[in-house]
Write a structure and sequence with these properties.
The protein has helices at 11-16, 31-37; strands at 2-8, 20-25, 46-49, 52-53, 65-69. It is an alpha+beta fold.
Length: 75
C-alpha cells in the first residue's frame, strides 16, 4: 500500500467536505484508478502530481502530493 496526500480545489472541497485528505491505495495505482475510486469523472478533472499536470496513466508512488483540479467556470 502507498500513502497519498490529496489536495482538493473548487467544488471538490464541498463534495468531500475538506481541502486536503490522505489516502492509502494499492501499489501500482494509476491516476485513472484513483479518480475511479473517488467516483470522479476522469474527463472532467485534471490531476497534478507534485505540482505538475500528469497523464491519467501515470502510476502513483508513495508520498505523492496529488492536486485534483475540477473545471473552472467564471463570468
Amino acid at each position: 500500500m502507498i500513502h497519498l496526500t490529496l489536495l482538493l480545489y473548487g467544488p471538490l472541497q464541498d463534495q468531500f467536505g475538506k481541502k486536503q485528505m490522505t489516502m492509502e491505495m494499492p501499489e501500482n495505482t494509476t491516476v485513472l484508478s484513483l479518480l475511479e475510486h473517488l467516483n470522479l469523472d476522469p474527463n472532467l478533472v485534471k490531476v497534478a502530481v507534485n505540482g505538475q499536470i500528469v497523464a491519467k496513466t501515470m502510476i502513483l508512488v508513495e508520498e505523492s502530493e496529488i492536486a485534483l483540479l475540477p473545471p473552472v467556470s467564471g463570468g
